C-alpha cells in the first residue's frame, strides 16, 4: 500500500483571508509577533503498491496538480510513503 499526502496552501502572492483572521486572533490572545499565517488543507490518499514506481509517482503528481490543487492560487507539496 502506498500512502501519499498532499499539502496545499495558498500561494504566497495570494491574499489568504483565513490566514489573516488567524493571525489577527492570535494577537487578541496575547500571542503577538506572528507576521504571517497561511491556512491550507492536507489530503491523504492510499493506493495499491503494484506497478512501476515512476508511473505511480507520475499519477499521484497528476492527481495533486490537476485535481486537488488550484494552480492559479495554490501551491502543493506531494509526500509519498511506500515507494522504493
UniProtKB/TrEMBL annotation:
Pfam families: PurS. InterPro entries: PurS, PurS-like_sf. Its EC number is 6.3.5.3. It is found in: Cytoplasm. The keyword Cytoplasm applies. GO terms for biological process: 'de novo' IMP biosynthetic process. It catalyses: N(2)-formyl-N(1)-(5-phospho-beta-D-ribosyl)glycinamide + L-glutamine + ATP + H2O = 2-formamido-N(1)-(5-O-phospho-beta-D-ribosyl)acetamidine + L-glutamate + ADP + phosphate + H(+). It comes from the Bacteria. The keyword Coiled coil does not apply. Keywords: ATP-binding, Cytoplasm, Ligase, Nucleotide-binding, Purine biosynthesis. GO terms for cellular component: cytoplasm. It is an enzyme of class 6 (ligase). Gene3D superfamilies: Phosphoribosylformylglycinamidine synthase subunit PurS. GO terms for molecular function: ATP binding; phosphoribosylformylglycinamidine synthase activity. Pathway: Purine metabolism; IMP biosynthesis via de novo pathway; 5-amino-1-(5-phospho-D-ribosyl)imidazole from N(2)-formyl-N(1)-(5-phospho-D-ribosyl)glycinamide: step 1/2. Part of the phosphoribosylformylglycinamidine synthase complex involved in the purines biosynthetic pathway. Catalyzes the ATP-dependent conversion of formylglycinamide ribonucleotide (FGAR) and glutamine to yield formylglycinamidine ribonucleotide (FGAM) and glutamate. The FGAM synthase complex is composed of three subunits. PurQ produces an ammonia molecule by converting glutamine to glutamate. PurL transfers the ammonia molecule to FGAR to form FGAM in an ATP-dependent manner. Part of the FGAM synthase complex composed of 1 PurL, 1 PurQ and 2 PurS subunits. Belongs to the PurS family. This is Phosphoribosylformylglycinamidine synthase subunit PurS. The gene is purS.
Amino acid at each position: 500500500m502506498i500512502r501519499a499526502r498532499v499539502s496545499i496552501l495558498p500561494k504566497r502572492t495570494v491574499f489568504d483571508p483565513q490566514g489573516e483572521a488567524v493571525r489577527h486572533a492570535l494577537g487578541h490572545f496575547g500571542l503577538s509577533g506572528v507576521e504571517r499565517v497561511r491556512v491550507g488543507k492536507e489530503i491523504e490518499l492510499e493506493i495499491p503498491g503494484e506497478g512501476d514506481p515512476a508511473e505511480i509517482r507520475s499519477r499521484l503528481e497528476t492527481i495533486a496538480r490537476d485535481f486537488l490543487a488550484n494552480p492559479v492560487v495554490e501551491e502543493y507539496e506531494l509526500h509519498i510513503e511506500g515507494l522504493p
